[in-house]
Amino acid sequence: MRDTILFKYVLSLGDDALISAQRLAQWAYKAPFLEEDIALSNISLDLFGRANFLLEYAAELKGENTTADDLAFKRDERKFTNLLMCEHPNGNFADTIVCRFFLDAYDKLFFYTLSKSRDKQLASIAAKAIKETTYHYRHSSNWVIRLGDGTEGSHRKVQEAINNLWTFTGEFFKMTQTDIVMMKKKVGVDRKALKIEWDKTINDVCKEATLRIPENSFMTTGGREGIHTEHLGHLLSDMQYLQRAYPDATW
Amino acid sequence: MEDRKERAFQDKIDAELKIEPKDWMPEKYRRHLIRQISQHAHSEIIGMQPEGNWITRAPSLRAKMVLIAKVQDEAGHGLYLYSATETLGITRNELITQLQTGKAKYSNIFNYPTLTWADVGAIGWLVDGAAIVNQQSLRRTSYGPYSRAMIRICKEESFHHRQGYEIMSKMALGTTEQQEMAQDALDRWWWPSLMMFGPHDSDSAHTSNAMQWKIKRETNDDLRQVFVDRAVKQAELIGLTIPDSELKWNPKNKNYDFGKIDWNEFWEVVNGNGFCNKERINNHVKAHEEGKWVRDAAIAYTEKNKNGARA
Amino acid sequence: MRNDNLPVWEVFVQPKTGAHFQHCGSVHATDKEMALQNARELYTRRQEGSCIWVVKAEDIVSSNPNDSESFFDPADDKVYRYPTFFKVSKKVKGL
């Protein structure tokens, strides 16, 4: 393998996109109305596209004829290094929207910085991601405001979602060994440095949506080390079923 | 007065002019259109389910993206058609209620289950293949908004058909297990696909008016024949066998003769006895009810913020 | 039960910069931003546009086909509005 650290780094970004996309794809034909069904599918498609680019790059770094599909469909839970937020079950529409809102706000900042990476390939994937993420953020933040400032019931649901998901946001800004090496090489992003801006964005939107940010500051982390919630295993067994059941087949 | 209007209306249709929403039209024409276009729309929407059933299990990143885009297109096509139906003075909510209460029908084919990945291929190849034959003909339908929706849909739909055939080809030329899945899918989807064109014209309650008003442009049997002739050759190319022992080239008519369709099965499924009738509607009702608080919230937000930037 | 029929918005897409906007259908949405986003998802999935207009369907004013004689026929004798009405010698250029 050419570069283990870079491989791990690219793979983790690919996993974020892949697992998020797979979650959103589960909304197909179940959204609150038809237009929104199409919107969620579009976001899912953007994320699968991004996952595909990143995993292809990771596969190339790994060598040994590895393909993006091998990485997506033939690894176990412990080998996946996505952020925990990405694997969180869809729940109700408010849960999904808040999950996306936190991630979209983070992605916007993350990919902006990554687009200046010394690694040309990452920089170009990031440049494409910025455009998509800008739109995704517009979609999710608008919904947070509508639901927060909508009915009593919607306000309660979106507030509950924020309270429940808040604990997974700390991980966005926690630098791993891989992050530190990549940052020093000017390939990766200083995620810790994104927090101030991210907090400000979240605060502004929540204020407009009449929502409160939880005071509880305990943060659950582990995704980047392959420690996951139990939900990931089920997501993978569903996603990987055909490739695992018929390892000799091409599709 | 009515008579004169009706004659002028028919003259316009005979001259191949389109009828537009604000034009005078006979009440029966309007009702026929609402029934037909909404049934078409509901078919697109319910049709998302059997394929959506495989989105999370699609076996490669490429297959996954293609399938999501396809199911998404179906939502889009449903929307174009609801949008066309709404020009006839009925709301989408009324249409959805008709679907959920069984007053409106959708294509019978979607009451069959998708059991293997090859079924996703069979739907694209056969079900979309059959739909395209019908839709291409409907581009020339007499009602403007319906015709325009069909033109748009046909443009977008062509990739669906290919996507299905690609899946079938890969499997038909793949491992033994894949080949079995492919043939099995063809065996199960072939006859229901032929039924999609509807009963023989002699038995169809709606054909005559629809032809006179040029809502329908070709008969069920003619369209069915076009489909069979195309599909037979496509099946041969990838080494699959069409499950019809009476299928035979007819040199005189220059088309394929085929066996008798089991219309008992058709009517059983239409009347609710298919594998998935209840489930399809229940899923639709569930999503609609679970979405109600979201729609209510969006309406409430707009009412509260009427003077704001977003409202 | 509360009526949750979302308002209908008509959608106009400009296929490319400089072109006329074309009507292409409608979407349901509760507010302007949602209407724009829904129109984008529905009518420009294949890069069909460079700009979108949305307008509430109830705000569109349409002429009535029954009035079309009085509305449009009076224009049928205004031949002088067309360049071919004017006889100009072939020798004249740039006109």
CATH-derived architecture of chain A = Up-down Bundle
Shape of chain C: elongated
Distance between the termini of chain C: 67 Å
Order of helices and strands of chain A: HHHHHHHHHHH
CATH class type of chain A: Mainly Alpha
The portion of residues assigned to helices of chain A is 55-70%
Low-confidence stretches of chain C: none
- Could you list the spans of chain A in which at least 5 consecutive residues all have pLDDT below 50? none
The count of strands of chain C amounts to 3
Work out the largest interface and the residue count of each chain.
A-B, 49 and 50 residues
Strand order of the largest sheet of chain C: 2-1-3
Strand content of chain C: 15-25%
Q: Judging from the principal axes of the Cα atoms, what is the shape of chain A?
A: globular
Q: In words, what does this structure look like?
A:
The complex is a heterotrimer of chains A (251), B (311) and C (95). Chain A is mostly helical. Chain A has one domain: Ferritin, core subunit, four-helix bundle (Ferritin), CATH 1.20.1260.10. Chain A is built from 11 helices and no strands. With 311 residues, chain B is an all-alpha fold. In chain B, strands 1-2 form a two-stranded antiparallel ribbon. Chain B is built from 13 helices and 2 strands, in the order ααααααααααββααα. The model of chain B has no long low-confidence stretch (mean pLDDT 94). By secondary structure, chain C is α+β, with helices and mostly antiparallel strands. The longest helix of chain C is centred in the middle third of the chain and has 12 residues. Chain C has a 3-stranded antiparallel beta sheet. Chain C is elongated and about 65 Å long. Chains B and C meet through α4, α7 and α13 of B and β2 and α1 of C.
